Batch of 4 targets.
Target 1
Amino acid sequence: MSKANDMFVQILESAVEPFGLRSKDFIVLTAIDTMGPQSQQQLASTHGIDRTTMVSVVDGLERLGLVQRARNPDDRRKYAIGLTSEGQALLRHKVAPAMLDALDNFLAPFSPDERELFNKLLWRLVYERDSPGEDEAGERA
Amino acid sequence: MSKANDMFVQILESAVEPFGLRSKDFIVLTAIDTMGPQSQQQLASTHGIDRTTMVSVVDGLERLGLVQRARNPDDRRKYAIGLTSEGQALLRHKVAPAMLDALDNFLAPFSPDERELFNKLLWRLVYERDSPGEDEAGERA
DNA sequence: TATTGTTATACTCTATAACTATA
DNA sequence: TATAGTTATAGAGTATAACAATA
């Protein structure tokens, strides 16, 4: 399991590395492209990233000219982190295709049916579970 | 994938934590119990752990009285790290069962057939792959 | 008072370099 | 000269605490 995940992570990291990105950057760019401009808190909490870490992630993306920090006029404490046109173009035409390629490479040992099956099993493993930590009364010493 | 692995790791770590152990410790203890006394280098390289890290892993296990450092008489540079009787008893009767319990808990969403299927798919994902990095000539820009 | 973003700081994990003793 | 073990050190990566601006 962990070995497969290590390969998975390394393949995805290698896919975005030529663009000077980490997989975290891809996640953030995709979230903005999909959901629209968001605050750093939203971007952080949605993806289980610490908000202080998100500062440097956005710093890096801004330095690359891929996102821009605009203030949210409705709540001036928040930013509205949005994609620049360059950021959107790079994500859609270069980075996302590279990620899809990498995922395809990772799943190369599987047939299309097996890919679907594997995905379903993984999904159930994560989400089809009794409320975690709720039945700890029955734990063994 | 990574989310499932995070759960996997956390469940296994929680299983050995009551014994004051980390999953790395379990791996080392099991390796010694299975293969017999080994040098720190063997223990390290076999499981992709750095040899300097292995020093502190063995330090911790020795402090807990679970392993002992004996010199290898055939090559006095090497240790022969062996289990103490306490270490073997704890591993076999407490830690290993806790690990099996944890694994069972992790795979709870699956039926027996699905567990076997999932294992086979994972195995193929890791090992049924073209020699990694060999066909990079065909990589895209 | 609480929240957003920021900075400085600390902590964990791991890797590198240099040393010793042995081969 | 090379290897096993050790130590000190440095580098990621991440988390905690405290602060300013805003709500």
Note: Confidence is low (pLDDT under 50) at residues 132-141 of chain B.
Target 2
Amino acid sequence: MKIRIKNFDILQIADSGQCFRMNQIDAPSGKIRYEMIAYGKYLELEQVDKDQVELFCSEEEYHEIWEEYFDLSYDYESIVNTLIEGEDPFLKEAAAYGRGIRILKQEPFEAMISFIISQNKNIPAIRSGIEAICARYGERIVISEKSGKDYYAFPTPDALAKADKEELRRLKMGYRDEYIISAAKAVQKGEINLEYLKQIGFDEAVKALKGVHGIGDKVANCISLYGLHHIEGFPVDVWIKRVIDEIYHNKFEKEQYFGYAGIVQQYMFYYMRYLKGRG
DNA sequence: CTCCAGGTTTATG
DNA sequence: CATAAACATGGA
């Protein structure tokens, strides 16, 4: 189904570093098309034009999953306009450049494990690592008999809680092996209730997440922002550190963007990577 | 080969 | 409290 929507650029979303399982594929139209797996479902989507995308799924599935996943009811246009019309020269440019980004509502457990894996890895390495985990521990998804390619859902907490260190090392998880297992076990045992963490406040959610071995402040902010949709999440990684240091000379206050700090962070991240030749 | 990557933990001053 | 070293490994 085709959807008319502003501020939705598939390429920007796929390349924004918040999700790691969107892959570009060829389309008969020659336009930008991606395939992805989320919530156990396979989806292809194509950029028809600047303000229109086509999702290749049923209307039920669209309303059940993807409308919310892509945060389509949120008005990004007004955020972008606020920043573009604002006083901050860096954010004017960053918002204009990344205006097609949306903050996805990913599966909380997937965000949790993905960002544990992400630490001290570059984005291509994160992608391949997550694919390896999915192929080993995730349920196979059948798309069609002929497609020849295998697709896997993200593993359940149960499946990952049973993983052993050696196997995770073989999948190139490195020292993160025990972090992954302890996180999966915490969820499996109910010590961490991710659905509950969605309900409570951002600060509390971060605090609870940091109780897990291997989750520090940055990863907890990522999980909160991308998995729990706490829009106050403001992950400070090497790129945001660079922005705060080089652009703001260590005088940046995220509090001035209360209510949408996570979106501001995303524009900063995406734009800085572009400026430094990684976008 | 060297340096860096959407960091966290542990040790040390 | 702040800083430094260790950690495992692939990508550029």
Note: Residues 123-137 of chain A form the longest helix (15 residues).
Target 3
Amino acid sequence: MADLAKIAGVSAITVSRALRDSPLVNAETRARVQEVARQHGYAFNINARNLRLRRSMTVAVVVEMKPSLERQMSGPYPLELLGGITQELTSSGYSVLLTALQGPPPPSVQAADGVILLGQGAHEDAMHAVRSWGRPLVVWGAVSRHESEVVVGSDNRRGGALVAERFLALGRSRPVFLGDPAHGEFAERLAGFADTLAGYGIQPLTPPVGGFTVSAGAEAVRALLERQPQFDALFAASDLLAIGAIRALLERGRRVPEDVSVIGYDDTPLGATYVPPLSSVHQNFLDAGVLLARKVRALIEGEAADSETLPTHLVLRAT
Amino acid sequence: MADLAKIAGVSAITVSRALRDSPLVNAETRARVQEVARQHGYAFNINARNLRLRRSMTVAVVVEMKPSLERQMSGPYPLELLGGITQELTSSGYSVLLTALQGPPPPSVQAADGVILLGQGAHEDAMHAVRSWGRPLVVWGAVSRHESEVVVGSDNRRGGALVAERFLALGRSRPVFLGDPAHGEFAERLAGFADTLAGYGIQPLTPPVGGFTVSAGAEAVRALLERQPQFDALFAASDLLAIGAIRALLERGRRVPEDVSVIGYDDTPLGATYVPPLSSVHQNFLDAGVLLARKVRALIEGEAADSETLPTHLVLRAT
DNA sequence: TTGAAAGCGCTAACAG
DNA sequence: CTGTTAGCGCTTTCAA
């Protein structure tokens, strides 16, 4: 900048202002300075600015990213969430720092102005670790769980309720919920589901499920068919589980949806292109990402931000 | 640091060295300083270090991230790639800066020590834009296309050849290739496929395909069935296209695989759980991510790095 | 093994 | 509208 200043015949601070499009500098001067900068291939030093301004214009996004395909956070969700976050944040001058939460975070992550945690999942400890960084924090997950944190999540209770209503409308009376309620979002889906059914004196079966995978869903349903085969509707807490469930049902000669109605969750392309195409509860991850981004930004800039619940809706397909 | 220095009764530079585990400092002093730092909740300022050291310990990952589910870069690929990259980079002290390549990149991205471009796709212009940042660059995509760049990609030619061999072993003689060869990686898959077939005097049909989606695959096959229905094998350049193709085939009463063998590409969970489970060419995105990360790191540290091709293998399932 | 001096490149505050 | 001064927090000389 000092060099540019000499070349352009102004002071360094004027160069600084000109490059920032400050209104404090004459339009003509500004143009000249910018031209000189361009000609000389000037590269701005963001670290110097950050040091001076005491901020990094950076938001850390913490993802649980195990190398396992069928995991809960796999599939398109986190990527869409990331897409929304990145879109919103970069368009307001922030950068997105991706972190895997394994071992101590690299220093640049600790220097982030804010943090977005994707999926508190079964990892309440992850939340604690991240909170200890002492940065503005926004979490994607089950909203009701954490009053002290800003949490964005989709309306899992409503999602569950929608499925219950659908089953009731179809005249189904022996429903099953498939999913481990230790997972906060799953617990909410079950709550909405069970509460609505309770209004009609119906209590869903909740067989144990050992995971989030297609095969976990299939196993659970196979076991259930052994012990309590008399069900006519199944609500799976994820499309993956639903697909596993359908597979197990078909194996045992149960027709879908004639004998058993099945509805999944997440409305993944996987479910949509499945044969039969899976009915599912849709949540808009892209919007969710944008919202998460806006909330950290608000927090960073000292404004208030509240937890928020995004609408869900039921997408009916063949099952 | 100056404060810590006073408290610990040493100089600032000694604090600096102690916190970095420098061997220049007495073990006892180091322990004391680190303890003081911990007790007082000292937060290291990474920007100051970066300013001083003239680097950012940051790698920008540029992704094409349009808000469309069925896009090429959707699905689990980029996430797995990202997982591998993040894993490798964070474990060596670098941070991963995620960027969407829309409009001018935020300054912190330009300050990255290196850049990984995920998918040159049909966007050769994306590569030009990124190259103009003048940073060490590694690209994920079609290796043969760019001699001047370091490109990591999986062995698309071999993948295509494997499929051809499989079809030949099955005695199929009228194969189709489904995919737009304007896409560099697709072109390589076709090349490997067609070359192998040519050795047996067979030339595959290459109907036009308008996109990367399930529906594009279905459309293309419907049109093909009108004009040239006499094919007995189909190699789709992605699982998405393959699924669309199967759907169209079943619609028109063609059995898979009895009448038409179908093999996809990418070995996605979507394909694996499809009914019928899709045979597909597998590529290991996690390893690829790690490799990409190692190569930028090498480049950043002034070492040489060459383009590299990752092995692919064929996963046979029902189709 | 420790420290003093100096400066990385930028910008807020305060004149002019 | 422009400039001077000072300092953000760290680390690499160089000297003790």
Note: Chain A has three domains: 2-44, 58-154+284-310, 156-283.
Target 4
Amino acid sequence: MTDDQGDTTPSVRDRHDAMHHEIRQRICLLDYPPGTRLSEVALAEEFGTSRTPMRRVLARLEDEGLVQSVHGVGTIVTDAEISELEQEYRLRLELTELTGRLDPVVPGPDFMVRLDGLIDRGAEMITSGTPRAFTRFDMEVFQTLLELTANAPLREMLERLYYKTKRLWLTAAIEAQLDLTEEFRIFHHELEAIRLALRAGDLEAVAHMQRAHISMSFQRLRQRGGAG
Amino acid sequence: MTDDQGDTTPSVRDRHDAMHHEIRQRICLLDYPPGTRLSEVALAEEFGTSRTPMRRVLARLEDEGLVQSVHGVGTIVTDAEISELEQEYRLRLELTELTGRLDPVVPGPDFMVRLDGLIDRGAEMITSGTPRAFTRFDMEVFQTLLELTANAPLREMLERLYYKTKRLWLTAAIEAQLDLTEEFRIFHHELEAIRLALRAGDLEAVAHMQRAHISMSFQRLRQRGGAG
DNA sequence: TAGGATTTGTGCGTATGTATT
DNA sequence: TAATACATACGCACAAATCCT
């Protein structure tokens, strides 16, 4: 009798995924900004485990490029110049477009209801949102729109690229003194456009819409970053 | 004084990469066919280390989808149906095409010399090659052609997809009773076509050439696999 | 059905490397 | 320059889970 159904005791893998997900989110929310030294023992204690499983999580984060462990020094949250980020952004553009061609999933009415809810929350966030809340919201939207393709490896790679680029977006956006309220507004507009395309059942248009906005978002970052 | 240059003592990461590379190659060469149970202690002893670093390697292979560790059972080399492989193949097609557009690298004369050498070896292999030698050769060609793009994340993802699909190609090709000599011949022809495109400096053509051949290769596999 | 053999997962002490004083 | 502090890397012993007899 294993836990193949229902909520019995969480398996080893579940705990691993939960810790990985949590720490990855902290990195993207800048709870652990680039350069932060993460302590194996401190994290292990916090999550109620020992160093060994935590090292497994940190190793995975290292393979994903989010942290780097150096013997004798520590596990440091990685940083990158905008120029280094550009390769990842351009690849992310192309993979995003692929979601419209590779195993697209026409969403059901429940999906549209969830999207409506997200868009409403996004509208409220324009005036009252903090950078942190906005990032959380962005992550939630990303995970939702990822359901529009059934191609598992594509989803996996898009997720990797998203977290690797998104965490530095917030850092760079603050440093470049971008008008975050304006960014919120643009994002909200993007979501409405995506909803329109979804209602028309045009998943390729949805993908191109996302691609265009990611491209413009990076463009704004680069212009301000290069200027100021 | 660290080992940043020259051949001083290999670093921790070097040993890790070497073990990972070796075991991954064994999986693709069918030294460890799908379903094989890998022993942590046996592998650790063979590589002259303990379980801990070996577990780190196996964990990475698990993240890459090549093996799966189950508590109390063992670490098993994963298997997949052709239908499951199709998603990965289609994504690989698209990423291969991207190598011609994302940070293409015009190769120098030394690269062309190496390619000439590879093509010559490929010609010999048509008559005298074993499936194992052919796979090794295919891996070497893949790594060489990967140099034609400078986009690091694209290379990384292409590598992941290559090993995840290639290891099952050999299994499926043997089971579907494909004419391997004919496959060798086709591959050699592909390489000559790629060389032609490279001499013309048309990297986009090189990418499309690779894409076309990967597509046709999978097509042959699917036809025979579905028929017999 | 129960028990033993085998395997992966966990916890912790120790070794090794780095940075700072 | 040397010593001390502290971090990750490693190795081993034990716990937990599964399979086979």
Note: The radius of gyration of chain B is 19 Å.
